[in-house]
Design a protein that fits this description.
The chain is α+β, with helices and mostly antiparallel strands and 344 residues long. It has one domain: 2-Layer Sandwich (HIT family, subunit A). Helix content is 26%, strand content 19%. It has 7 helices and 14 strands. The strands form 3 sheets. Strands 3-4-6-5-10-11-9-8-7 form a 9-stranded antiparallel beta sheet, with helices on both faces. A hairpin with a 2-residue loop joins strand 12 and strand 13. Helix 1 packs across helix 4. The protein is globular, with a radius of gyration of 20 Å.
Amino acid sequence: MTWEERWHPLREEWVVVAAHRQDRPWSGEKITTEETPLPDYVPDCFLCPGNTRVSGKTNPNYENVFVFDNDHPSVSFGAPDVVQPSSSAYQARPAHGVSRVVCYSPHHNLTLAELSSEQITQLLGTWQEQYLGLGSRAEIEHVLIFENKGEAVGVSNPHPHCQIYANNFVFKTIANEVAAGRRYFSEDGRVLFQDIIRAEKEDGRRIISENDSAIAFIPYFARYAYEVFVAPKNTHPHIAALSNDELTDLADVLRTVLIKFDNLWSMPFPYVMPLHQAPTDDEDHSTFHFHIEFHPPLRKPNLLKYLAGPEIGGGNFLSDTSPEDKAAELRSMSDIHYKSEARS
């Protein structure tokens, strides 16, 4: 029986690990995970090549990665002025920024896990370009790149894609990581994420994949059952700082993790995947360590990790699983995608 609290050094909060709760009786609603095969092209898909979007704009017949400004942006430099609240306790300002969509490929049915290492490397290169281009704007303080995958996280269009929010503020989680990293460095003289990598390598039980310059692991302090961090071993504040060799290594480890996810239950594995990158506010972020995080909502094939009293009411996560057990489960999965194995 596991019943302990583990300190999350990046978020500076406690995570309660109660793995014995994983098999508790559950009579609530279950998530449908039956896979419905998708065609390569869908005539009414707003993201497929050559199709017309809601805005009336027509997608080009793209063959690789395709980037465009979101037709339904969450932030915009054209945002109207806001009415200031009467109370001094409240504040408001226009939501200025840029929202973009990045289609991974022209294939409606080809997820990130099914792309080749070369295709994923090309996508990472696009992320580099977008971070630098958007982050160079004086009005932009942070560039958030993320993918929401699967119905379990509310994705409205199944065509594989990610989104970019380039905002006039720094997202709270990143701001917390910046502050935690600076405090740790000032007290210990070491980069916090480097110590996390060192601890994971010394323990070894939670590592999922590793090569010369990249590593993937379920962290000691994981909040979700299959929460995985993918990171370069060297400290870089953002993805654009990686060398070509580091980018290739990162793509290989990222692909391995994605394949193992899908192989876990022989289905497209749902997740939220944010890139944790340093703000673009011209401050010193030399101690910030770029990494990719996966927050999968399922703890069993048909069962969500519901956020309830401890998480929403108390503000701290209660994990129903052991990071060591879940890492061993993922590690045991094949490195060959289950669809490829089925076709061979």
